[in-house]
C-alpha cells in the first residue's frame, strides 16, 4: 500500500479504521527514503531502529526533524562539521511533546549550516535539491525538511523560521509552511541561531495538517523565557464550515514594487482575485518601513548568531584542532577557522564588528529602533485589516550555484519574509500556481502565496488559508514528476 500522497490526518484515519497499521506506514516511508533520497539529499541520517508502536494521537506516524532540534541519543549536527558527531543528552520540548503524542522521529533533515542561508547550499554535509526543479535550490535554511515533504518521502517535517526559513523553502518546494507567532512554540533545546527571532514550525501537505501539529506543539514552557503563557487550541473541525466572507485582507503596496518578478506578481494577483471571489474584502495598505527590514535584520540576526556561536570553541563543543600547546588565541583560531563554513565565518566576523565598542550605537541600536518601527507598521495596518497577503520571495527557485557567491543578492531573497519575523507575527505559505523561470522559460516552477496575521491570531490565519487552499484545489499538482509512488 502506498502512503506517498496521504496527509498526516489521512494516514492517521487509515490506521484507526484498520485499513493499515503503524508498522506498514513506518516500513513504507523507510523504504521510500532509502530508495528516493539519493536524488535529493534531504536527510543527514535515518533512525531506522526506532519503531515502537504507539496508540497515542500520532500513532507512530514518522515525521522528519530538522537537524537543529536536539533529540537525546541522536546525532544532531546543525549540518556542520563542527558538530558532526555531537549526540545531545537533552531533548527539545517540541520533539518531546510530539513523541509523547505518538510521533516517530525517523530522519534528521539537512539544512544550511547553523541555519544560515536561503538556498540549502550552505550545508557542510550535502546540497539538497528541489524535487520540483531541474538542479534547482529547495530554499533554506530548512532545505531538507521542505524537500523531503515535497517528494513525499515523509508526510510532514519540523523546521525553524528565523527570517523565513520555513515559509521560503515551503514555497520553493510547493508545500505548506507554517510559522506561528514568536513564543507559541518552545525554543528549548533547539540549537539557537538568533534567539529573539527563532520560531519552530512545520512543513505539511495541507493547512489542516499544519493546524493539527500546531495544536500538539504549542503551549507554555517554563524552561523557555520567551514562551507565551496561554496554550492555543485551533478547532480544526470548524475549518470546512468556515468562510472568508467579510474578512478584510490587506495588500501592502511595498510588496509589489520593483524587485518582484513579473510572472510571480501575476500569480499572486490572480490569487488575490480568488480571495475576492470568496467575498473577502481587499484593502490596499502601506507598510513603509519594509524597505529597511532586510538591513535591520542582517544586523540584529547575525549579532545574535555571533553570540550564540561563541560556545562552539572546540573546547566545550565541536571540532578541536588539538593545538593545545599554542596558546588560547591559536586554539580558537584553528578550532573555528578549520571547520566553520563561509557563511558562519562571514557573519561572525562582520557582526562582531557591529557589537564592538564604539559601533554598537551606530549599528545595532539603530537596527533595534527600526525593528520597533516595523512592529508599529504592522500594528497600524492591523487596525484596518484582519490579515495581510503577498509573495514569499521575489523569484521562483533559482539554479544551484546561480547566486550563492553573492551574499547581498541572497539576502534580498528574504525581503518579504523578514518583516513578519522581526515583528514576531504568524505566517503561512501555500501553493498558488506555476510560473516560468527567468533562466529557462520552458521550465515551470512553483509560485506561492503568503498570509500574515496579527500576533497570536493563528486560528483566523489558518482558517482563511484552508479556505483558499480548498478553492485553489492544487493538491494533485503538488506531486513532483520524478517522485511518483
Task: List descriptors.
485 residues; eleven-stranded mixed sheet; 13% strand; globular; 11 strands; alpha/beta
* Gyration radius, rounded: 21 Å
The averaged pLDDT comes out at 91
Unreliable residue stretches: none
With strands numbered from the N-terminus, the spatial order across the biggest sheet is: 1-3-2-4-6-5-10-11-9-7-8
The number of distinct helices, counting runs of at least 4 residues, comes to 14
Order of helices and strands: HHEEHEHEHEEHEHEHHHHEHHEEH
Distance between the termini: 10 Å
Question: How much of the residues is beta strand, in percent?
Answer: 5-15%
Number of strands: 11
Structural class, by secondary structure, is: alpha/beta
Q: Characterize the overall form.
A: globular
The helix content is: 25-40%
Q: Strand count, sense and closure of the main sheet?
A: 11 strands, mixed
Describe this structure in words.
There is one protein chain. This protein has 485 residues and is α/β, with parallel strands linked by helices. It has 14 helices and 11 strands. An 11-stranded mixed beta sheet has the order 1-3-2-4-6-5-10-11-9-7-8, with helices on both faces. Helix 6 (207-217) packs antiparallel against helix 14, helix 8 (293-309) packs across helix 10 (342-354) and helix 8 (293-309) packs across helix 11. The radius of gyration is 21 Å and the shape is globular. 55% of the residues are buried. The model has no long low-confidence stretch (mean pLDDT 91).
Amino acid at each position: 500500500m502506498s502512503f506517498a500522497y496521504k496527509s498526516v490526518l489521512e494516514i492517521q484515519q487509515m490506521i484507526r479504521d484498520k485499513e493499515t497499521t503503524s508498522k506498514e506506514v513506518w516500513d513504507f516511508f523507510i523504504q521510500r527514503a532509502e530508495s528516493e533520497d539519493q536524488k535529493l539529499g534531504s536527510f543527514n541520517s535515518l533512525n531506522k531502529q526506532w519503531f515502537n508502536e504507539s496508540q497515542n494521537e500520532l500513532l507512530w506516524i514518522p515525521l522528519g526533524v530538522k537537524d537543529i532540534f536536539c533529540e537525546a541519543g541522536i546525532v544532531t549536527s546543525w549540518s556542520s562539521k563542527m558538530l558532526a558527531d555531537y549526540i545531545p543528552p537533552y531533548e527539545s520540548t517540541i520533539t518531546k511533546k510530539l513523541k509523547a503524542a505518538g510521533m516517530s522521529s525517523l530522519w534528521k533533515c539537512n539544512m544550511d549550516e547553523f541555519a544560515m542561508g536561503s538556498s540549502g547550499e550552505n550545508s557542510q554535509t550535502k546540497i539538497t535539491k528541489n524535487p520540483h526543479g531541474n538542479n534547482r535550490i529547495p530554499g533554506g535554511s530548512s532545505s531538507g525538511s521542505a524537500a523531503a515533504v515535497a517528494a513525499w518521502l515523509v508526510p510532514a517535517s519540523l523546521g525553524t523560521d528565523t527570517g523565513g526559513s520555513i515559509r521560503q523553502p515551503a514555497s520553493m518546494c510547493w508545500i505548506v509552511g507554517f510559522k506561528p507567532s514568536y513564543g507559541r512554540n518552545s525554543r528549548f533545546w533547539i540549537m539557537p541561531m538568533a534567539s529573539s527571532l527563532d520560531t519552530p514550525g512545520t512543513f505539511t501537505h495541507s493547512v489542516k495538517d499544519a493546524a493539527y501539529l500546531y495544536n500538539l506543539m504549542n503551549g507554555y514552557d517554563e524552561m523557555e523565557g520567551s514562551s507565551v503563557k496561554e496554550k492555543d487550541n485551533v478547532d480544526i473541525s470548524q475549518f470546512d464550515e468556515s468562510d472568508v466572507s467579510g474578512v478584510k485582507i490587506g495588500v501592502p503596496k511595498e510588496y509589489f514594487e520593483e524587485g518582484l518578478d513579473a510572472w510571480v506578481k501575476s500569480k499572486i494577483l490572480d490569487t488575490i482575485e480568488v480571495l475576492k471571489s470568496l467575498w473577502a474584502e481587499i484593502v490596499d495598505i502601506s507598510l513603509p518601513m519594509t524597505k529597511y527590514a532586510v538591513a535591520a535584520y542582517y544586523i540584529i540576526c547575525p549579532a545574535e548568531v555571533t553570540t550564540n556561536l561563541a560556545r562552539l570553541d572546540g573546547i566545550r563543543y565541536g571540532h578541536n584542532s588539538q593545538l593545545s600547546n599554542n596558546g588560547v588565541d591559536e586554539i580558537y583560531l584553528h578550532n573555528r577557522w578549520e571547520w566553520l563554513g563561509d557563511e558562519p565565518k562571514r557573519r561572525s566576523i562582520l557582526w562582531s564588528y557591529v557589537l564592538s565598542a564604539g559601533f554598537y550605537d551606530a549599528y545595532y541600536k539603530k537596527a533595534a529602533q527600526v525593528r520597533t518601527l516595523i512592529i508599529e507598521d504592522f500594528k497600524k495596518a492591523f487596525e484596518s485589516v484582519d490579515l495581510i497577503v503577498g509573495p514569499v520571495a521575489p523569484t521562483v527557485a533559482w539554479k544551484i550555484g546561480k547566486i550563492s557567491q553573492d551574499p547581498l543578492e541572497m539576502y534580498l531573497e528574504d525581503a518579504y519574509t523578514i518583516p513578519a519575523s522581526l515583528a514576531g507575527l504568524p505566517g503561512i505559505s501555500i501553493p498558488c500556481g506555476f510560473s516560468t523561470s527567468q533562466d529557462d522559460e520552458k521550465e515551470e516552477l512553483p509560485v506561492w502565496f503568503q498570509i500574515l496575521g496579527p500576533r497570536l491570531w493563528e486560528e483566523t490565519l489558518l482558517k482563511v488559508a484552508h479556505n483558499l487552499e480548498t478553492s485553489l484545489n492544487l493538491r494533485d499538482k503538488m506531486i513532483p514528476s520524478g517522485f511518483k509512488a
